Amino acid sequence: MNAGDAGEDRAGSGSGLRERKKRETRTALSWAAIRLTVERGLANVRTEDIAAEAGVSPRTFNNYFSGKAEAVAARQIERGRQIAEELRARPESEPLWEAVTNAVLERFALGLPTDAGKAPDEHWTAGVRVMLGEPALQGEFFKAAGVTKAELTRAVAERTGTDAGREMYPELVAAAVTGAVTVVSERYVAADPPVPFEELLRDAFGQLAAGLPEPRRKKGRGSSA
Amino acid sequence: MNAGDAGEDRAGSGSGLRERKKRETRTALSWAAIRLTVERGLANVRTEDIAAEAGVSPRTFNNYFSGKAEAVAARQIERGRQIAEELRARPESEPLWEAVTNAVLERFALGLPTDAGKAPDEHWTAGVRVMLGEPALQGEFFKAAGVTKAELTRAVAERTGTDAGREMYPELVAAAVTGAVTVVSERYVAADPPVPFEELLRDAFGQLAAGLPEPRRKKGRGSSA
DNA sequence: TGGAATTTTGCGGGGTACGAATATTTGCGT
DNA sequence: ACGCAAATATTCGTACCCCGCAAAATTCCA
């Protein structure tokens, strides 16, 4: 195998020194890529810098990631994977929407400034907003969402006893959920008078579960949430 | 302005010679990129080849597109734009879901082999399937879907008289729709006993509009759609 | 402990993206 | 019709990126 290859590289698989080091290097590289990008902007970060930051040779960087963008997005993929994992772990008794909501809240909304007492660090969050807007990264972010969708599809299929190969249902749910989470996250980050993540999420999922009913507007006013 | 820049470059804007030539060059480049990629695979296409195919200098290619991937995806973006446009053009009387369904069918399902009498050309369609799977392109494809989502968001907001800045509703609808269309397209392309596009689409939208109800499975079998 | 499996690394080559300067084409006023 | 100004295309040069290859270093396990 060639280091970062797609083999059974899953986060918690092997326990040998080898596997652990590989995972550590991978995380270190991804983390370095993120930090440098937030601080200087993607264009001013060379792969060489990232490698140096993680303490490996430049060539090794490309053994793990095919490019800067992929390295930055690796974190999001990991988070998505954890959400799917959490969904599988929810008790069978929970209705699907409740389980999904809880899974997202459990694994996604952790460590967010409004919810935790972290130091928001204006400089950092501003940089993050810039990073999320980088055109060269958005493709990879969407791609990450695609991976998450795939994992959620499997989890939903399992949970509802549906055959994802035959029915569209699990994939439709997964697509709607990832889409909604994306929307919610953007709103959450951009909200100027900050809004609790959970509130936005429940609102969004509520609309989805209700079939996205068209808000009948009376005369001139839009209805308020 | 520098050729392919983001200015008011919209498909049907200016009518001068300048604007037209620009649009023609752009389409020629995108089309060339697609054709060569389908025939040889993305890795065996140099930007130089694409430029040559379109009859411009290599440097000019990069004045229009930031890379091969973007050039290939340009077509999809255009299609998405047309769907949003069609949605705006649907009569106000149509309920939202119906209007969306019609808009998609009108502008998306055109020229599909099963529906039209085109020559399927096995060689070509096989190449297309390969292209759609190219990892280096998927990011850009997702990005294209993102652009479409944005356009749909505006169209839905207009149509339902909702303020997309305040309410999540239009964006949620747009996200769910683009997600569903993606799922449907994949199924349609992969279906071995071919299935009509319209059938899949109505099924998917039906489930969305119904709130994606969890199919209560009885004992051992999944329910059929 | 010793060899097998795996990973890291340096090197080299083919390409890509883009800034700057220059040439060319188009739009438009007179 | 002419010629100037603006927009666009081209040429050239540079920095960087991605990856194949094969040698060196590390880890595994019997």
Task: Describe what you observe in this structure.
Two copies of one chain form a homodimer. Helices cover 65% and strands 0% of the residues of chain A. Chain A has 225 residues and is mostly helical. The first copy, chain A, has two domains: 1-66, Arc Repressor Mutant, subunit A (Orthogonal Bundle); 69-209, Orthogonal Bundle (Tetracycline Repressor, domain 2). In chain A, helix 1 (17-40) crosses helix 2 (47-54), helix 1 (17-40) packs across helix 6 (122-133) and helix 4 (68-89) packs parallel to helix 7. The first copy, chain A, is globular, with a radius of gyration of 19 Å. The N and C termini of chain A lie far apart (53 Å). Chain A binds a DNA duplex (30 and 30 nucleotides) through residues 1-3, 16-18, 21-22, 46-48, 56-60, 62-63, 66-68.
Strand-helix topology:
2 copies of one chain form a homodimer.
Chain A: H1 17-40, H2 47-54, H3 58-64, H4 68-89, H5 96-108, H6 122-133, H7 135-160, H8 169-190, H9 197-209
Helix pairs in contact in A: 1-2, 1-4, 1-6, 2-3, 4-5, 4-7, 7-8, 8-9
Chain A binds a DNA duplex (30 and 30 nucleotides) through residues 1-3, 16-18, 21-22, 46-48, 56-60, 62-63, 66-68.
Region (Disordered) (chains A, B): 1-26
Domain HTH tetR-type (chains A, B): 23-83
Pfam families (chains A, B): TetR_C_14, TetR_N
Instruction: State which percent range the strand residues of chain A make up.
Output: under 5%
Envelope shape of chain A: globular
Q: Please state the oligomeric state of the protein chains shown.
A: homodimer
Annotation, overall tally of beta strands of chain A: 0
CATH superfamily of the largest domain in chain A: Tetracycline Repressor, domain 2
User: What gap, in angstroms, lies between the N and C termini of chain A?
Assistant: 53 Å
Mean pLDDT of chain A: 88
For the record, the CATH class of the largest domain in chain A is Mainly Alpha
Structural class label of chain A: mainly alpha
Looking at CATH, which topology of the largest domain in chain A would you report? Tetracycline Repressor, domain 2
Largest interface: A-B, 50 and 49 residues
- State the major sheet of chain A: none
Give helix and strand order of chain A, one letter per element, not per position.
HHHHHHHHH
